[in-house]
Design goal:
Blueprint (H helix, E strand, L loop, with lengths): L2 E6 L7 H16 L4 E7 L8 H6 L3 E4 L13 H26 L3 E4 L4 H9 L5 E5 L8 H10 L3 E6 L2 H9 L8 E3 L7 H8 L12 E5 L8 H10 L5 E5 L5 H10 L6 E4 L6 H6 L2 E4 L8 H8 L4 E4 L5 H5 L6 E3 L4 H13 L2 H15 L4 H12 L1
Parallel strand pairs: 1-2, 1-4, 2-3, 4-5, 5-6, 6-7, 8-9, 8-11, 9-10, 11-12, 12-13
Length: 378
């Protein structure tokens, strides 16, 4: 008999975790179909746009309710906190009933983990609970406390990087044997091959350009790149792809610095691989990552990487500049020096870095993820 796995990951906005969840489910279904039935819990309609694709992959969507549908692209700290509370109200009882009635073998929780944690604390749930840490965890008092008292109910904790695993281990929240390294399934080779063949219009940028991709938020730190172009004379143009709450601020900054003919801001693109392949190099200026999807996608696409040494993931992935050019997080001078190192590197040096990063990227395929998660679940 197949084991049932439920995935829980309510989300707001286009976060990288969405792709991680989808690829994880697809990987398990394709490569371990004889062992598992895969189900995704849809809390407030956040997964509605994935119905056709998941149906094609024979992954079931379980709707907790159909009365409320929320616009997942709305932004703002206060709004998101209200949604978190609203999610607790509408899903606590329904999720509890679903778990008690259906008795799935595993519940893998990615986002809004406090809701299933509270259910497990107050009820005798037989389903094995697995915490999948998504992104760099901010261990404030409340989260640390909830995780600690939930330790007895949690069977496994999947960590996306070794750095994060060691960090969690040092906090003595979970039993150490529960902590497992599980790289995100960033790379879906079949999909990448298809997307790479699509052609895009790049008439706005006719010459060589650097590329930065990511949500326009404080985390991605695009302001550092804009300041670099303001302070230093960089001949190549810069393309930034993304949406987010800082979009208006960044547009204003570019105008104030009179860099409209140097820096171009494109809206979110589903297909980024065409742009990566056309870029001179891809720059990641994040203040934190875990591990850094764009960095991994760039490595797989065999393009040079200039990346912040932020926690946690980039240092682990790139090594001591073996797979790219690391600079000190949020340091304008260090970023400038990395640009300089990149421009002075000959083809042989660049190819060695590209090859190292390409090999490292294979850890993050859905095939490898599926193989590792199947090993942990058995």
């Amino acid at each position: 008999m197949k084991k049932e796995i439920y995935y829980w990951s309510p989300f707001l906005g286009r976060v990288a975790t969405i792709r991680s969840v989808v690829n994880s489910m697809i990987g398990l279904k394709r490569y371990n179909d004889k062992y598992y039935e895969i189900n995704l819990i849809n809390c407030y309609g956040e997964w509605n746009s994935f119905r056709t694709r998941l149906k094609r992959e024979k992954i079931k969507i379980l709707d907790l309710q159909k009365k409320f549908y929320l616009n997942i692209d709305l932004h703002g700290f206060l709004f998101s906190r209200l949604i978190y509370f609203f999610t607790l109200i509408i899903s606590y009882k329904k999720l509890k009933i679903l778990l008690i009635k259906n008795k799935p073998n595993f519940l893998i929780v990615h986002l809004l983990t406090y809701i299933p944690f509270l259910i497990y604390l107050n009820n005798n749930i037989k389903t094995k609970l697995i915490l999948r840490i998504s992104g760099k965890p901010k261990l404030n008092f409340l989260r640390s406390f909830l995780w600690k008292i939930s330790n007895k109910n949690i069977d496994l904790v999947f960590c996306p990087t070794l750095e994060t695993m060691e960090y969690i281990k040092g906090k003595n929240i979970f039993n150490k044997e529960k902590l497992k390294f599980l790289p995100d399934p960033v790379l879906f080779k079949e999909e990448i091959k298809k997307l790479s063949k699509e052609k895009k219009n790049l008439k706005l940028i006719k010459n060589s350009f650097f590329l930065s991709i990511g949500r326009l938020t404080k985390q991605k730190n695009h302001e550092l790149l804009i300041n670099l172009y303001k302070k230093y004379k960089i001949k190549d143009k810069l393309l930034i792809i993304g949406d987010g709450e800082l979009k208006g601020y960044l547009i204003k900054l570019i105008k104030n610095f009179k860099l409209e003919k140097k820096i171009f801001l494109f809206n979110y693109r589903k297909n980024i691989f065409y742009y990566i392949k056309k870029a001179k190099a891809v720059i990641v200026t994040s203040l934190w990552e875990d591990p850094g999807f764009v960095m991994i996608e760039t490595a797989y696409s065999k393009k040079p990487i200039i990346c912040s040494d932020c926690p946690s993931g980039p240092k682990e992935f790139i090594g001591k500049n073996k797979g790219g050019f690391l600079f000190s997080s949020n340091s304008l001078v260090s970023l400038k020096n990395s640009f300089k190192s990149f421009s002075k590197s000959n083809k042989n040096i660049l190819n060695k870095k590209i090859l190292y990063a390409k090999k490292k990227s294979k850890l993050y395929t859905i095939e490898n993820h599926s193989k590792m998660i199947n090993k942990y679940l058995n």
